[in-house]
Amino acid sequence: MSVAISLPAVLDLRAAEPLKTQLLAVRGQETTLDGSDVERLGGLCLQVLLSALATWRADGQALTFINVSEALASQWSAFGASAADLAPQGQLA
């Protein structure tokens, strides 16, 4: 069974702990992250999301972004993170 998580509009310092908790609660399950509402991405939430990507891969599970907003994509890339991580599985960014 796949789990869907909608990311909040502001992924800042205050959002990092709740995001981490939410992700840990569904660890081991195929998960989609809906980024359609994201307007701002901070460094700490970026780290949480990158850690989640690595964890899901190590667990052999899919963690996929869907409906990635322009703001999320541009700020993700501005931090130097790979845009390929935001692409649906099997597609290149």
UniProtKB/TrEMBL annotation:
Pfam family, one: STAS_2
InterPro entries linked: MlaB-like_STAS, STAS_dom_sf
MlaB-like STAS domain boundaries: 5-80
Record's protein name: Chemotaxis protein CheX
